[in-house]
Amino acid sequence: MKIQVIAFISLFNLISVTAFAEEDGEKLYQQHCGACHGATAQGQRRIAPPIFAVKNHYMAVHDEELTFVDAINAWVANPEEERSLMKGAIRHFNLMPKIPVAEDDVTKIAEYIFSDKVAIPEAYRKHYERQHSGKPAKQYSRLLLRQFRLSPAQMDELNLSDEQLTKINELITEKEVVMQPMREEVLSFNQQLQTLDSRKANYVSEIEILADVNAKRVEQMVKASGAARAKIEAVLDDKQYEMLLVFREAFLKRLKRS
Questions:
Q1: Domain range list for the chain
Q2: Which candidate, 49, 130, 226, 246, has a CA 20 to 30 Å from the CA of 239?
C-alpha cells in the first residue's frame, strides 16, 4: 500500500510538473511572441506570420520535438535570412529582429509551439473562407470535384447529404489553409535555385542543401495531404466509399489508356 501511495504521488508530481511546464511555455509565448505571431494580430496590425504557419514550415524539416526545439533556439539566437525556412515571410514582413529571451525560455516556448495546442487561428480560417465565399457555386464545386476526382454526375450518384457536404467543405477549407503555405514554399525553393550563381565554387553544395530542404518539404506536403484526404473520406458512409473506389479505379484505367 505504501509503495502504491508513493507511486501515485510520484505520478501526480510528474503530471503537475508537465502541466506547469506547458503553462509556462504558453505564458512565455504570449509574453514574447503573441503580439506579432498571435491569432489576434490580423490585417494591418500583423507584422509577422501567424505561429501556425511558422510551426508548419519548421515541422516540415524538423518533425521531431528535439530538433524542432533546437532549430527554434538557433533562429531566435541569431535570425539570418540565409538560414530562414520562410523566405516569403521575410519578403513580406522583413527579417525578424533579435529578441532578448533566455535560452531556457525559448526552449519552453518552442515546446509549446510544437504541442498540439497551437492550431489554425479562427480569424485566419474565416479570412480564407471570406476570400472564397464570393466565388460562384459552380467554381467552388470544382474544388470539391477535384478533391474526389469525380464528374458532377458521379457526385450525384454518391448522394451526399447536406450535412456531409457541409462537413466535407469545412475539411477542404482546412486542408487548403494548411497546404497553401507549403505549396508556396516549394515554389520559393524553385525560385531560389534560379538565383544561385552556377560559377561559384560552392554551387553544387548549395544545390544539395536546397534539394534536401525541398525534399523534406515535399514529404511533409504528402503526409499532410494524405492525412487531410483520410479525414475527408471518413465523412462518407461505407456504401459511398465503395462507390468512390469504383469511380477511382475507372479514373486510373482512363489515365492508363490516354
A1: 2-114, 122-257
A2: 226
Longest Cα–Cα distance of the chain, Å, equals 75
62: left (phi over 0), alpha (psi -120 to 50) or beta: beta
| 228 contact partners, CB below 8 Å, separation of at least 6 | 171, 174, 175, 178, 179
CB under 8 A, 24+ apart: contacts of 97-104: 99/32, 101/28, 101/32, 101/76, 103/73, 103/77
For the chain, 258 residues long, give each residue's pLDDT as a single digit of tens. 444 444 433 433 433 434 444 468 888 988 888 888 876 555 446 788 888 778 877 876 777 888 889 889 899 998 888 778 787 788 778 888 888 889 999 999 999 888 867 766 666 566 555 554 544 333 334 667 788 888 777 888 888 888 888 888 888 888 888 888 888 888 788 788 888 888 899 999 989 988 888 888 888 889 989 999 999 999 999 999 999 999 888 888 877 876
pTM, to two decimals: 0.47
Q: Enumerate long-range contacts of 28-31, CB under 8 Å, 24 or more apart.
A: 28/101, 28/105, 28/108, 28/109, 28/112, 29/109, 29/112, 29/113
Q: Which residue, chain included where needed, has cell 519578403?
A: 91
User: What is the spatial distance between Cα 83 and Cα 251, in angstroms, rounded to a whole number?
Assistant: 43
Contact at 8 Å (CB) between 79 and 97? yes
Written as one letter, the residue type at 19 is A
Task: State the cell numbers at 18.
Answer: 508537465
Please give the distance of CA 7 from its chain centroid, rounded to a whole number.
39
Between CA 188 and CA 109 the distance in angstroms is 28
